[in-house]
Write a structure and sequence with these properties.
Number of strands: 5
Number of helices: 1
Radius of gyration: 13 Å
Number of domains: 1
Structural class: mainly beta
Strand content: over 45%
Strand order of the largest sheet: 3-5-4
Length: 73
Amino acid sequence: MVSSIGVLECPFCDEIFEVKSPDKLHTAFSTTKPVPKSYHADVVGKKHKCQNPKCKKTITVYWYAPLEYFTRM
């Protein structure tokens, strides 16, 4: 069971950081909540702290299972 890994940019300072999905189902991610009815199951929010020593702000990454994935099956 491999989790998804993605790369994001801190919205405050543009620092690049990696994120890892909480499980195999939640493969899509965003720093904003997804539009209702565009995902299956629930949305999991994971907090990350920016690694830039000048920033250190908390960023919430929302993981979800997009509906497009289930329509392809």
